[in-house]
Write a structure and sequence with these properties.
- The strands form 3 sheets. Strands 1-5-6-7-3-4-2 form a 7-stranded mixed sheet.
- The chain has 4 helices and 14 strands.
- By secondary structure, it is mainly beta.
- It holds the Pfam family Ribosomal_L25p.
- This is Large ribosomal subunit protein bL25.
- Part of the 50S ribosomal subunit; part of the 5S rRNA/L5/L18/L25 subcomplex. Contacts the 5S rRNA. Binds to the 5S rRNA independently of L5 and L18.
């Protein structure tokens, strides 16, 4: 993972009202935990926004700095406003660079699958993988090449190759992605519903009874030809 620096300030104000006042000043409330006591912090919105602009997004190692200390951490959680989608709170997890870390990283499918060229649909079934590694060896994402997949083919966790420094903690038979056929048209589905199951009887219709087997029905008069008319 890439390592970036981020400057913060210690925060004494707490509570919803204090958080609202900070956000009006374009300051984001934050907290750090993981080693020792939790500590309330705040970060300038523009500084954090620049951090998010890097190609790896939030999947980076951080050197957090205040006026009193420097700590290594990762972003554990970002809370966003449900309406405006702006960041309203950040959780940082302090880490030990010499100890393995368990973390979920995104799965990125790469390549154009053969099955897609033939009209199939690529369905991603797993968006994240839980992995374990020393922080310095953590990948920002796991890339999975799907270019060889035909219609009906699939990739499971056990098919994914990672470096020896990284261990995948998911079940090996868990489905990651597959190529499926497009859903049938509604008309075809309706036609299938009309097909009677084997042994199913036709519903009785009120009115005249049909002649039973062996009985003669009424003769239908033949239509006159044009010459007879």
């Amino acid at each position: 993972m890439k390592k970036l620096e981020l400057n913060l300030e210690k925060r004494k104000e707490k509570g919803k009202n204090a958080s609202r006042r900070m956000r009006k000043k374009e300051v984001i409330p934050a907290v750090i935990y993981g080693r020792g006591d939790n500590e309330s912090l705040k970060v300038n919105y523009s500084d954090f926004d620049k951090l998010l602009e890097n190609p790896d997004g939030v999947n980076v190692l951080l050197d957090l700095k205040t006026e009193d200390w420097k700590k290594e951490a990762i972003i554990k959680k970002i809370q966003r406003d449900p309406v405006y989608d702006n960041v309203i709170h950040i959780d940082f997890l302090e880490i030990d660079m010499d100890k393995p870390l368990k973390i979920s990283v995104p799965v990125e499918l790469i390549g154009l699958a053969e099955g897609v060229k033939e009209g199939g649909i690529l369905a991603q079934q797993l968006d994240e993988l839980l992995i374990e590694s020393l922080p310095k060896n953590l990948p920002p994402r796991i890339e999975v090449d799907v270019s060889e997949l035909d219609i009906g083919d699939s990739i499971v966790v056990g098919d994914i190759e990672v470096s020896d420094d990284v261990e995948i903690l998911e079940e090996e038979d868990q489905l990651v992605a597959n190529i499926v056929l497009p859903t049938e048209e509604e008309e075809e589905e309706e036609e299938e519903e009309l097909v009677l199951e084997e042994g199913e009887e036709l519903p009785e219709v009120e009115g005249e009874e049909l002649p039973e087997e062996g009985e003669e029905g009424e003769e239908v008069p033949e239509e006159e030809s044009e010459e007879e008319k």
